[in-house]
């Protein structure tokens, strides 16, 4: 005999799905100091958010993340850090992309440890000034995030992870965003660190709803 279908249960599930608030997604690039400046606030404000490391030719994480030395950008990031009362130390190998760290972040997200890993990397890079492409630093971040260190380092060296990162970048671009970090909520999109800050004020209902789960 087949299983008994509980129509009342199905109706309840359907109603919950229809009335549940849209999920918050945080797109980020660990090479950007603005990801570091936004990450811990995002973690505190949007419990249960999906964290997606993203790369792509069409995405703009700022000239510093692209490896361009721009004194105006350096000054702007330092000024923003002071406004937020956060330390900001420039890493040993900066500016430039961090492909190993981003692949490891994709692995961490797949294990439900994306926020913890991204925050650990940000602290190592922009509080400690360490090169997070160094396997020793990635191991430190993995341990801090509660990840298996060997598996994290294997993921960091696996170029197949780039497809996942590029897919996240395309999803952001198709949704109308092109600046990292970014927050997406339903059809709403908040781009750049200032946009992320605006999202924290614009989406209070999401905060309370997700923290109550």
UniProtKB/TrEMBL annotation:
Q: Which SUPFAM superfamilies match?
A: Thioredoxin-like
Q: Name one Pfam family in it.
A: DSBA
Superkingdom:
Bacteria
The DSBA-like thioredoxin domain is annotated at 24-166
Q: Which UniProt keywords apply?
A: Isomerase
InterPro entries to which the protein is assigned, alphabetical: DSBA-like_thioredoxin_dom, Thioredoxin-like_sf
GO terms assigned for molecular function: isomerase activity; oxidoreductase activity
The name on file for this protein is: 2-hydroxychromene-2-carboxylate isomerase
Which organism's genome codes for this protein?
Conexibacter arvalis
Q: What is the lineage of its organism?
A: Bacteria, Bacillati, Actinomycetota, Thermoleophilia, Solirubrobacterales
